[in-house]
Amino acid sequence: MIKLMSWRSRSKNLSAADAEFMNDVQASLLSQTTPGSKLVMWIIIAVIGIGLT
Global pTM? Predict the structure, then answer.
């Protein structure tokens, strides 16, 4: 996830705790395979992305 959002890190540095939290969320969501869980994953990614701007 950090690689997906690397262009954001130039304008706003992520703390180590934020990066670790995002990695944990990504790992737990990517282990789910149902269509509903993938929708939830994209919603959470969008919310985190909007929150970082």
Answer: 0.38
